[in-house]
Amino acid sequence: MRETILLVDDEQNTREALSIALGREGYNIIPATSGSEGMKILEKESVDLIITDMIMPGVSGMDLLHFARERHPDIMVIMITGHASVETAIAAMKDGAFDYVTKPIKLDEVKIIIQQAADKRNLLLENLLLKQELKGKYTFENIIGTSKTMQEIFSVMARVVNSDSTVLITGDSGTGKELVAKALHYNGLRKEKPFIAINCAAIPSELLESELFGHVKGSFTGAVANKSGKFEQANTGTMFLDEIGSMSMALQGKLLRALQEKEIERVGGAKPLKVDVRIISATNTDLEKAVKKGLFRDDLYYRLNVIPIHLPSLKDRAEDIPLLAAHFIKKYNDKLNKKIKGLAGGVMDYLVAYDWPGNIRELENVVERAVTLTDGEYIMESALPQSILGVSGQEFYNVPQIPDKGTDLERELEGFEATMIRMALKKSGGVKSKAAELLNLKRTTLIEKMRRLNL
Q1: Are residues 429 and 399 in the same domain?
Q2: Tens digits of residue pLDDT in 284-337
Q3: On the chain, which terminus has fewer CB atoms closer than 10 Å, C or N?
Q4: Whether 419 contacts 346, CB under 8 Å
Q5: Crossing angle between the packed helical segments 107-137 and 177-186, to the nearest 10 degrees
Q6: Residue-wise burial string across 365-403, b where 16 or more C-beta atoms lie within 10 A, e elsewhere
Q7: Partners of 309 in the beta sheet?
Q8: CB 323 within 8 A of CB 352
């Protein structure tokens, strides 16, 4: 079934003819004999489009338009009018009507306008859904962490989210700096405005100025047309400057001017352009040291560092690893259509003991790999990369506490068995016959167990 159309016309012939013709096209038609009846239907029924006569006794088409726009702004309204009332129909479009058709009605024309209206409505709904998804995706709750350090970060974010103060986010690569920047934007006063991100280290310095401020035609070789920069695109919104520490000294001065004067100049341009942009920047380098070495302007550093937020490395917030791992398991369960319940016994010990040089990004990659490789209900050690299993030359298997709701003994035993086999293989240098001797097993029995445990 295609769109549902409320068809309002006091002329029976017109109403019936359109109902039959559009019904044959697959549309669900709800007829109404008057504007007041159309209003009552709108209060009870879900409608995608309205086709209404302009002039009707009592409640007119204009009255119905205003009623619909006030209560259901996503509904597209098409007006039917006579040639003598075209000016009124144009006025209706200024008040929110999508389009109009004139009598005598041409069915082909109506079908084209209906399809255009449906396409526009679908686009509007998709954009609205996308905005809602973005808001949900970048809520504070989606920045995972119960550690004291993360709770302090959440507290700072909550205090500055509705301000326009510049924020400098520091931390190693993979700690989630852009995620924090997006959470600040999509939960703040500018959430309906653009969020523009640019990685300053990924763009050659000679091109970065044009990317930030735009350029005018002919300002350099290849500038064949005027181009707006990221500042203009982010106007009234937020711009995220990642790896700000890589910016050249000359460009730092122009960025400082943009922050102080709230205006920019395109490359090759002579006319300043006013901009209203909140700046959130990030770096994995020590800007204070860069200032002392003369590699970063101190005045720009103090301008950017009004609100500092430092994200700790994952190894410094190891208590958050179980929560993060569970979050990523759920994420990739949904993405890969898996039903993994969690980690087998002992697997979490490896994750907690590992140093995570790639931080949260590396943990997510490891969990994605493990979910992809796991066919059962629990992720076994065999699904982890060797770099994690060989951490610090240690082997782990802590006997878990039995929770009040009970546990899965077979799963715990499988985890212990897998750990012992891996230890024996490591001790024997990977020689299965020697590993079998260490475990007092036959070589064929060991191989059978390895196959069953996906080792």
Answers
A1: yes
A2: 999 999 999 999 999 999 999 999 999 999 999 988 898 899 989 999 999 999
A3: N
A4: yes
A5: 120
A6: ebbbebbeebeeebbbbbbbeeebbebeeebbbeeeeee
A7: 169
A8: no
The count of structural domains within the chain is 3
Q: Are residues 119 and 247 in the same domain?
A: no
- What is the number of alpha carbons within 13 Å of residue 301 lying toward its C-beta? 18
DSSP state for residue 398 in the 8-state scheme? P
Q: Is the peptide bond before 104 cis (omega within 30 degrees of 0)?
A: yes
Q: Tell me the three state secondary structure of residue 114.
A: helix
Helices (H) and strands (E) in the chain, counts: 19, 14
SS3 436: helix
> Could you tell me the residue range of the domain that residue 211 belongs to?
140-312
User: What tens digit of pLDDT does each residue of 217-262 get?
Assistant: 888 877 778 888 999 999 999 999 999 999 999 999 999 999 999 9
**For the domain that residue 78 is a member of, what is the CATH number?**
3.40.50.2300
Q: Whole-angstrom Cα distance, residue 72 to residue 438? A: 74
Cβ-based neighbour number of residue 133 at 10 Å: 10
Q: Assess whether 181 and 291 both reside in one domain.
A: yes
pLDDT-wise least confident of 66-75, 193-202, 308-317, 358-367: 66-75
SS3 396: coil
